[in-house]
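Hi U.,

Before I forget, here's the chain from the pilot set. I'm dumping it here mostly so it's searchable later in email.
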Amino acid sequence: MQHDGVPAAAMTYDAFHAKAQAIISTIETVIDGKRDAVEMALTVLLAEGHLLIEDVPGVGKTMLARALARTVDCSVSRVQFTPDLLPADITGVSVYNQAERVFEFKPGPIFANIVIGDEINRASPKTQSAMLESMEERQVTVDGSSYSLAAPFIVIATQNPIEMEGTYPLPEAQRDRFMARISMGYPDATAELAMLRTRATSSPLDAVRPVVDATELGDMITTARAVYASRAVEQYAVAIANATREDRDLRLGASPRATLQLVRAAKARAALDGREFVLPDDIDALAIPVLGHRLIATRRAGAGSSVLSGSSVADIIARIIADTPVPISASS
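Structure:
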């Protein structure tokens, strides 16, 4: 199905679905019993967004990030965020070449297709802000010169809850750069027992091999981008975003960037579901992971809620979705 103004898909939807399922199956050899988290991570990757994984230590946040990175045959770098990390340690630095008598730029770890930022909220806000330009504009500016980042480019960052020792809350501008935030949660008893048996002598991550290369991933991204979102669906997403800006229980609503990323993620979700068009259900399913970390509840609304779960914000979003009329001709 081809719609006016929508680019042609780079690969057939059958090929897209086969590749996507192969990626999911490969990741699930490492992350067991967390299908929703795995699918959400892949959705963000295919929507050209950045992913924030927030949870308590030891539940597999970094393992999910590494497993997703290993399924793609492309450049991958990892940054361990610590309080003494400097912005230049991420972006790179200009070094004077005495032989040539010129300054040469030495790229930092941000120059990779997939960047894993481990415990991002343990670095100072100044260092966190060093990633703002790269995450939004896909470029880095050092000493007045701009350097483009290779496509595709995705940042997968993990963080501990802000009530943990030694953490800094991410600034609002930084959180807004992330397309979605997910939590891993504790495994169920069966999955935890299986983990004890299978990881006694080796890590399943060692057996993970690439499923797609950078070119194929680019084709999958183009295919997801070509999914059709009707005017009615777009109006529905805008109505939800506007409602967050006007809700009395929120003191910070969704930005226009959030609306744009909500629709992009919905397209990727529809493609993963084997559809060539977005449904209002896609918007509903993604509203909390895409909008939740961007919104700030008033003190009255947030009283008694958990910082980790963000339950008050999630409840507000759920109420807004329930109160927003669903377009009848959304798939037309």
